[in-house]
Amino acid sequence: MSQHNNPRPGRLAAFAATMLAAPFVGADAALAAPFWYVDPVTPYGEIVNQTYQTMVWIGIFILIFVELALVAALVKFRKRKDEVREPETWSHNTTLEIVWTVIPFIMLIIICIPTFKGLAYLADIPKSPELTLEVVGRQFFWEYRYPELNATFTSAMRTEANAKLEKGGKDWDAIALYLPIGRKLLVRLTGADVIHSWWIPAFGLQQMTTPGNLVQIPLEVTKPGDYEGACSYLCGPYHGAMDIKIKAVDAATFDGWIAAHKAPGPIEPIAKVGKIGMVAPAPVKPAHGAAGGEHAAVPAGGEHAAASPAASTAPVASVAPAVAVVDPKALAAKGQEVFASRCAGCHGATGGGTPPMFPPLAGAEQVNGSDDDLIDILLKGKSGEITVKGQKYNSAMPPQDSLSNEELAAVSTYVRASWGNNGKPITPDQVKARR
After folding, report:
1. Is the pTM here over 0.70, yes or no?
2. According to a count of CB atoms within 10 Å of the terminal CB, is the N or C end of the chain lower?
């Protein structure tokens, strides 16, 4: 009784029919479903969508072609019953090699057309934009600024309280950045602490914000609506809560929103925020011949400056050190600006915090207690569990040591004078002593 490994004809026919039908079923499903997950609302988003659809169609073509070639090969070169033949000995087919080289080359050219179109669009930075939007990535929120309009806005982290807000509702609108539709914007992006990524799918944009680097891209939103995104780069333990909410509106609505978000003072240049173009300070060299044998520090290159005759003859004891006079009200006013750009995203615009991650500042023992403890928290940061007003919080606050002594003193004074707090003002000299 002879045995062979050939499958039954019925099974072979069923297998061949399945293989033939699979690519067509897949293509039909692709045609029935959209090739994108959001509707693009910017010119660049349209280009990205076009590129994506082109690649999907090429993928469908490859799927059908390869599957048909596979089925044809299985049918044509299968071993028949009782067939005895020697293995093929050929090793090359010039025609086939030309075909499978030329076809992928043509596909790449087709993909390159919309790809280069998108690159050209991003590279066409408007020299005279209608409006400039500055985006600063911070842990763990976004700071937005319209420098020409002297307006600022900080995003809110996603919490249990705002995670399920209805898009377009009053509460959702309150934590959304407003953009004007139909206006050509220049968007300038940087990071203040670590690398973030500003990603809005409906815009077709995913742009990194890196400290020390300034990126500029054009943006024009063509459709009004509510759009969401997120930081798409792992920037820290609360990276997943760094939401982006944007509301595209008409000119009148945008102007009203801007009027409600005017900055309390001049906006800090984005180059300074992102540490762009910063260089190491000039080395300080000791000056010889200082009173009491001490070496007085002077800037490099200034050691040969002529000394004042009065300074050279006056007794040391008669020279009193200059004492900086600090105006608490002026310091607090400056601190409000620093707080809005640095602290409000986590601790809330009214100091109420964002439970259960970030503690409140209103009535907090750490705010109203020791001067040194408050300054150390700002300079060195705070991580791990902390108890505020009897409630435990477990979060991470990055150090704010990039701020100047005056800025740290100002924001400390502001939070101590706000929301019912009663701590005394902090001076820049106190911050300097703890640095």
Report:
1. no
2. N
